[in-house]
Amino acid sequence: MDNVNPASPSDQDCAEDKFEGIIGNGTGLKFVLTEVQRVAPTDSTVLVLGETGTGKELIAHAIHHISPRCGRPFIKLNCAAIPFDLLESELFGHEKGAFTGAIAQKMGRFEMADTGTLFLDEIGDIPLALQPKLLRVLQEQEFERLGGGRTHRINIRLVAATHRDLAEMVKRNEFRSDLYYRLNVFPVVLPPLRERRPDIPQLVSHFVGLFARRVGKHVDHIPKETLDAFTSYSWPGNVRELQNLIERAVILSNNGVLPNPLPKSDKNGNTNPLSVSDENPVTVTLSQGTFDGSTRALILRALQRAEWIIGGPSGAAARLGLKRTTLIAKMKKLGISRPVRQVEVAGLNQNLEPDRPWQPTAD
Hints:
Elements: H1 13-16, H2 27-39, E1 46-49, H3 56-66, E2 74-78, H4 84-92, H5 109-112, E3 117-121, H6 131-140, E4 142-144, E5 151-153, E6 157-162, H7 166-171, H8 177-183, E7 186-189, H9 200-215, H10 224-232, H11 238-252, H12 264-267, H13 283-288, H14 292-305, H15 316-320, H16 324-334, E8 342-345, E9 348-351
Parallel strand pairs: 1-6, 1-7, 2-3, 3-6
Antiparallel strand pairs: 4-5, 8-9
């Protein structure tokens, strides 16, 4: 891929709003943003993984804003929202007369994103028949429009996102393995909102202010009971669900007081017994097994940066926002063990304790 020249001085505002719309200071979110800052200056493909409503598009925007491509096009496409027979045209464009209804030439999203960033959301929904063409443009940075014979060369940086488990889809022959490996260069796993409970009050305050201005209401009081209900709720729809419920609550508010918009069954914490004190910003994602391959890579990176120290303030567990015992359990489940060190004995390299697997000890 050709290099992109650094952004001009007129693009300096990009850095100022690089994390615009991303609210929270919890350990799990901080780890994600650290990963974003590491990969953004490169041209590497990023695969953003997370449940629906966790803010994958915001992360894609942040990657673009921190990158040298800031100030150039940021083009997005939700692959699940486009019918199969139109998706190829949306991605690659078409020539006039390429098919019935093609009354004019059309530029595709890849061409629109030239020199910039292309964000493909829900990439797990791309049909198998279209995946070889997508793989080619990612590898060769060239394509042809539908109905055309001319090869177009482009220079784009791809950020893809999905809530699906692509590794499992590969096993079921529902997703091409070569495309998966091409996409999974640098995975970023977003924690669901139920793992970001310390961030919920800040998110609530942000959305209350946003929607109060939008609907012309003054809301200056959020009762403790309402905030407690928010922090104990399971949030299956994540931040998007919180945003929509806050909008409803602002509309229903009277005398500047925010009401509780949650179902009655959740006001008493029945749907989610987890209390705020039980919060652990990464544990649920790691225990779900939805993204085992990416989770394994995430843990390995943290271990390597901590020089395989698990406990302590600078250990891998603290970096991941996990308890030391929880991280050890996850390592065992995922088959992660410390590389066996080599020692020089009588001029020969021999493994230390060759027949015994590495067992974590107190650090």
